[in-house]
Amino acid sequence: MSTATGTSVESGAQPPREQARKQSTMAQALNRALRDSLAADPSVHVFGEDVGTLGGVFRVTDGLTKEFGEDRCTDTPLAEAGILGTAVGMAMYGLRPVVEMQFDAFAYPGFEQLVSHISRMRNRTRGSLPMPLTVRVPYGGGIGGVEHHSDSSEAYYMATPGLHVVTPATVADAYGLLRRSIASDDPVIFLEPKRLYWGKADWSPEQPEEVPEIGRAAVRRPGTSATLITYGPSLPVCMDAAEAAARDEGLELEVVDLRSLVPFDEETVVASVRRTGRAVVVHESAGFAGPGAEIAARVSERCFHYLEAPVLRVSGFDIPYPPPMLERHHLPDVDRVLDAVSRLQWESEWRAQDAGGGVN
Amino acid sequence: MTVLEQSGAYHLAPPPDWRPRRDPAPLLPDGEPFRLLGTGAELDGELLRELYGQLVRGRRFNEQATALTKQGRLAVYPSSTGQEAAEVAAALALREQDWLFPSYRDTLAAVARGLDPVEVLSLLRGDWHSGYDPRASRVAPLSTPLATQLPHAVGLAHAARLKGDDVVALAMVGDGGSSEGDFHEALNFAAVWQAPAVFLVQNNGFAISVPLAKQTAAPSLAHKAVGYGMPGRLVDGNDAAAMHHVLSEAVERARGGGGPTLVEAVTYRLDAHTNADDATRYREAAEVESWREHDPLRLMERELRDRGLLDEAGVREAAEAAERMAGDMRERMHQEPELDPMDLFDHVFAHRTAQLHEQAGLLRAELQAAEAEGTPAAGQRHGGRQQDDERGGRE
Predict the structure, then answer these.
(1) Contact list, A130 vs chain B (CB under 8 Å)
(2) Compositional bias of type Basic and acidic residues: which residue ranges (chain B) (predicted)?
(3) Which of B135, B186, B354 is the closest to A85 by Cβ?
(4) Beta strands, E only, chain B
């Protein structure tokens, strides 16, 4: 993707290295991405409920109204369909709206605008009216939220042709992917894993190490025994599981962070599973007809002759998101991931022992 | 311990003085729909003649499109017969730079705005969703979901104002659409933002079969405006002069920074909801006949004749112009549209995903195989498959 904004990210000024290294949270990185996008492109407009004076309930839009004025970062009436619907009209007129849905389940009143208009307007008008808008949706559980504050709705968005669906799992990706999303000429559902908002990392916006293109997965941990395919809030769980498997079982699990669900980086996933011969898909949302179903089907189609075991899924249960005092029983944790790994068929020769041998 | 005992400093102070923030009276519509025809009001003769010509064209357009459904050339047609005055006025009240946001019934407003009838009918013919370029014509795609185009109009109007452009957005919706959530959210946003937007509700009596009395308990749809803090105007929707006057006033008010207006046009759908609907199941013939007396064409023709602005020659001239348009429509609609199935993949995203590349490859191979076998590419896949099967499958 080569857009003006994307290019300016990559060619940003480079301050002295010692000043650049510092700790940042994902929320701060997202805030910085919004600020940089607003500064770089006058057509970018941020709006939504509470995004102005309050700075968003998660403070992701903190200070934007003060810095850019009420016309660029605007508090709206409380109405998700209205926010998304007016964003359509603004995009029709050449602006780049960035709207916030505040919480995952609050986006549902806006679904008609998403599926009937935002996802189709380019198609309907043969490219005359592209929809360069970004919908920020804080999503997922693990923060003790009450009902309607912890849903993982990515399967709905993924099932809607015309939408990109992106979800960062690291502080650096939060910055880079949000800038790419805002610069994209297509609508992007930008899913922000709430429980990673306050996770800190060595990252400085003055020196972004990586501004990934939308649609490229990342191998977060190389391995040879099996591939864990995951994204967003489940990435840290999978990284911990891979550490534990290496320590306790001598298994080297490869961890693939999808980063983008649509477009789906089939090549990276397929290459990994063909190397390891085994795969587990891990996500929080319900398993039935969930993202893992699609991914497992694709892996089976493309890797059938390389697979030593069926592709397994570790997901949330097929239940409405549980009340906070019970959510720990619902969310995939390290033990559940390791249990799935142990259910992979290990009778045949371990690929780990067949160093670099591939499949004959 | 009661609450009162706990709060020792409790005083029986009155609540803060509260009054409505704005006087609602100026926002309320008049009790009777606004009329101009037959009142002897001073009117621009040129405008009346222009409106008459457009009404005649519009009626002919509705008749021709309905005929095309009977010939299988249109999948469906929601006629605006009886509502031509509102349609035409909506188009003529706008300036070149303004935007129109029509619903699926408002094909005529798009045609009156100058769009090619065949391009406007593309959605209903089924060759593509929007046959015209909205950016070039400043007519948004015909919206099938009800009232969802209203917030688009508000967003566009707001964006234009942010850019300092002189643009007004006029959004059209029916009485049924006024019950949808998007209607409420659009009007609320428009009023809060003081967006240069105008909302035109064509109250044609029925949402398919449900009459207005079962649709809303509001005194009138125009009365809903006061709840949003914008003026509501009630107009005789069959009086083209009144419609043009009120809409022009609302559009220019928005242009001047006065904010949005809600206009209710009281009219009647003389035809059924679409050609697929049986209107005799939910309304009496006598009711329809009484509205024929109030036909927008008859009202305008009578007015022009009374003022000495129209004679037999003028009537014939308008009819002939409309007939030329209908003839051209008919001829072009009877031609098979040229379709390229590969277009299906061209406008999903700015750049095709790997998965769409793969699927486009599959369709291209199918089309090439069909061509090699001499099978017409479109609509003949089943035949092609059968031949594959006879050869022992596709692999």
Answers:
(1) 350
(2) 385-395
(3) B186
(4) 99-101, 169-174, 197-203, 206-207, 210-211, 232-236, 261-266
- Please indicate whether, in this complex, the C-beta atoms of A162 and B353 are within 8 angstroms of each other: no
Which one of the listed residues B59, B60, B138, B269 is annotated catalytic? B269
CA nearest A59: which of A265, A184, A260, A198? A198
Cβ contact (<8 Å) for B162 and A45?
Answer: yes
Write the CB contacts of A258 (distance below 8 Å, at least 6 apart in sequence). Answer: A167, A217, A229, A230, A231, A264, A265, A269
Residues of A in contact with B350 (CB under 8 A): 122, 130, 184-186
pLDDT digits (tens, 9 = 90+) for B357-370: 999 999 999 999 99
pLDDT tens-digit readout, A168-207: 999 999 999 999 999 999 999 999 999 999 998 888 777 6
**What tokens does B175 get?**
């009485």
B148 to A95: CB separation less than 8 angstroms, yes or no: no
Over its length of 395 residues, how does chain B's per-residue pLDDT go in tens digits? 565 566 555 666 777 788 888 899 999 999 999 999 999 999 999 999 999 999 999 999 999 999 999 999 998 999 999 999 999 999 999 999 999 999 999 999 999 999 999 999 999 999 999 999 999 999 999 999 999 999 999 999 999 999 999 999 999 999 999 999 999 999 999 999 999 999 999 999 999 999 999 999 999 999 999 999 999 999 999 999 999 999 999 999 999 999 999 999 999 999 999 988 999 999 999 999 999 999 999 999 999 999 999 999 999 999 999 999 999 999 999 999 989 999 999 999 999 999 999 999 999 999 999 999 887 654 444 443 333 333 333 32
Distances from the Cα of A298 to the Cαs of A255, A317, B138, in angstroms? 17, 22, 43
Rounded distance, CA B233 to CA B93, Å? 15
The closest of B57, B52, B89, B43 to B307, measured between CA atoms, is: B43
Choose among A86, A264, A266: nearest Cβ to B158.
A86
Which residues of A carry out catalysis? Answer: 149
Gap from B395 CA to chain A (nearest CA, Å): 16
Q: Which residues pair with B199 in a beta bridge?
A: B171, B262
Reported pTM: 0.91
Question: How many beta-carbon pairs below 8 A join chains A and B?
Answer: 142
One of B282, B294, B305, B330 is an active-site residue; which one?
B282
Is residue B104 annotated as a catalytic residue, yes or no?
no
pLDDT reported for residue A50: 97
Integer CA distances (angstroms), B123 to A52, A144, B126, in order: 40, 48, 5
Residue A189's SS3 state is: strand
What's the burial of B1, exposed, middle or buried (CB within 10 Å: 0-12/13-18/19+)?
Answer: exposed
Q: What number is the ipTM of this complex?
A: 0.92
Local structure of B18: helix, strand or coil: coil
CB distance A112–B136 less than 8 Å? no
Is B148–A130 a contact, with Cβ atoms under 8 angstroms apart?
no
Q: By CA distance, what is B135's nearest residue in A?
A: A128
